[in-house]
Amino acid sequence: QPVYLSDYQPPAYRVTHTELTFDLDPANTLVTARLHIERRATADADTPLILDGEQLTLRSLSIDGTPLAENVYQVGDEGLRIERVPACFVLDSEVVLAPEDNTALEGLYQSNGMFCTQCEAEGFRRITFYPDRPDVMSTFTVTVIGDRRREPILLANGNPVEQGERPDGRHYAIWEDPHPKPCYLFALVAGDLHKVEDHFTTQSGRDVTLQLWVEEENLQKTDHAMGSLKRAMAWDEQVYGREYDLDLFMIVAVNDFNMGAMENKGLNIFNSAAVLAHPDTATDAAFQTVEGIVAHEYFHNWSGNRVTCRDWFQLSLKEGFTVFRDQCFSAETNSAPVKRIQDVSFFRTAQFAEDAGPTAHPVRPDHYIEITNFYTLTIYEKGAEIVRMLRNLVGWDAFRQGADRYFERFDGQAVTIEDFVDCMAEASGLDLSQFMRWYDQAGTPEIDAHGEYDYAHGEYHLTLRQRTPATPGQVDKQPLHIPVAMGLVGTKSGQDLRLTLDGEKLGKDAVIHLREDEQTFVFTDVAEAPVPSLLRHFSAPVKLHFPYSREDLAFLLTQDSDGFNRWDAGQGLAMLALDDLIAAHRNGVEKVMDGRVVDAFRALLASEPADKAVLAEMLTLPSEAYIAEQQPIVDVDAIHAAREFVRQSLAMALRDEFMATFEANRSSEPYAPTPEQIAQRSLKNVALSYLMSIEDEQGVALCEGQFAANHNMTDVRHALTLLVHSDRDDLATPALKTFGEKWAHDPLVMDQWFTIQVSRPQADVLERVKYLMAHPAFSLKNPNRVRALIGAFAQNRVNFHRLDGEGYALLADVVIELNRLNPEIAARLITPLTRWQRFDETRQDLMRSQLERIQREPLSSNVYEVVEKALA
Ligand code: ARG
Ligand code: ZN
């Protein structure tokens, strides 16, 4: 059942042109396909034609106008096979689909009455019989026929070429996409949509029409996405020299969507949560997410569409590169250090966990059962970290030259990760063969580091030893090429020292290259004892262990010239304190707060911050999920108790400072999602969190006031969360009621209302989840609702991991039901259960027995693959 990378064969038949006609109907859509097919010169004349096709009802089939007799072809569950075909021919087929019954949201489906599609990776085979693989690229002409009242708007990829009335009273539109593309980039949308329109003039002076299509009530929520799109278009021209290549670019917002968005050529389709934003309904974080995703999908036009993937094992070729591109874009439009801090903390929490669990896989996997299970943090974010390392290794200029080479050489082709790395090697002259191991080796490399200062010779000896733990199916690991950005910070001067390594002067901020299992780097002319600052800006996706003392970390927290490492030192200092408190909690010993953390926070609060958003991050403790990642066995209650203790101790010791910070950062300016305002709000809200953690009257009053003032969703949501997560149910209950009634009509706000309630630490959460599943605003068929309620509950560490196992049972119930409705979402939802090995034995047994219960069901390939791995 698995597919293997090593089995790759180029396609025997190409499709040079594709003509599709959709006669839309919720229960009976007729899809007529005319495929212009050619056998490749290298293929034998007797090679059968095999087309993918699933859940299609075939009505007719003919070659060059002659209907095929039933004995010359076979139709099975997975497709169609025609034994003998000419070298060059036209294949006509007619199939019937029922979009209204499509709850998997793959292929052609209906969302709120609107027709839409999702084809990546293998959804096109649910639309018509076709070679559904990315290395078959074709031009497309698409005719969409619909009901004028129900579907006044008919969209597909490319340029509109014709529209009109039909004798039967229906209307139609014809679209032509001149750029050859794989069928996973096909899209169609039809429904009662409204647009906002804008224009962008490209570098070379072409006018591009930009359209954002939404349901009427969402017209007020489009400004931010449109602005983001224009910024992204300008950025890709300035930074990568890449221009848009059609006269029209469309984005459509749909309510039911499995992921964030999809880069279909000229017609991006978005989850409404990833494109709509208004100050009254979306938080600062949501504004930033929208900007990042709009840019991401736009950037795919080159990194993904013009140059695409040969096969799905190469998925990170387009996703890793495009995530790297959107990260750089967002860093430039927001606070760059904060963007890096947020990306890395997420990465170290969630990707490290994936890499350490039973579903660990390389950035380029070598086999899979269900490709939709591989749209993962490893393929996306670790892939982006690898591209970032490449950029840093070869330098920006060579990287840009390599990218130019890649886009030029492979334009209109479907290629591999080697093709990309080769361009970088050629442009830089570097040997990247060892570096390639990053793509094929799963697991997070760990570096054990230690250093020694030799006073007598003025030398600093730094020894780095790397190892990558075994992952499923990969026991032996080779050493990787790991770039370690570093400095030596003099303990007397508090400055970065000049680095001399093997007689070579490296400057104050250098990169050393670890390629062997173990290497010792001897720095000479080191005039004072240093504290090393290692892995600056997270220069490689590894875990680095250095035996820092608390004094070292407190020193780096104030003196390191690298902002990222200053933040990281603060996190490290907090982690040492948290570790002690977790142990104290487990041993039933009285908890004592580490005064050094209090002193460090006091100093931070007294400083005049250059960037308030960075300060807000520095004042934020590691999340429970991150702390859990650092423990050999996760004790959810001890972690929660320890973190709360630190929060409250800091709040009590620094109450006046937090109060002053809160007051100094209030503002009545009209809302704008600018970096300055976002920074100020985040600092103010961090202060409010501390004040609310001790629930003193003044803090509570400020929180209630912020909720009632109703200035913008960022502040309202933050205040509501603090009220609901406090023990003041007398305040939480009415606030939730007010908010829920006010926003009952807005599903994206109701999602926030669900999430806030089921993330609270109090013990009533499981009952709430069950109660809310019956709420009229909830539906298991909508992925956003499922994520907001069930997904958020499974992230609630203390409540999901209840010792009676009821949290696990509830998740398993939902997975079993969703397995029938939407296998992709069902498979994703299981993730927290797959991490059972990280917990105590009682919980391990409880989690495993729920996985076994799921395993006994008749399963989709998606859920089957995840459960098999989890229990292997
Ligand atoms: N290519 C899309 C993106 O990263 C995501 C594809 C979604 N695929 C899926 N099977 N849901 O922007
Ligand atoms: Zn993408």
From TrEMBL:
Leading EC class: hydrolase
Cofactor: Zn(2+)
Keyword Endoplasmic reticulum: no
Residue runs in coiled coils: none
Domain Peptidase M1 membrane alanine aminopeptidase: 225-438
Reaction catalyzed: Release of an N-terminal amino acid, Xaa-|-Yaa- from a peptide, amide or arylamide. Xaa is preferably Ala, but may be most amino acids including Pro (slow action). When a terminal hydrophobic residue is followed by a prolyl residue, the two may be released as an intact Xaa-Pro dipeptide
Family: Belongs to the peptidase M1 family.
Identification of the protein by name: Aminopeptidase N
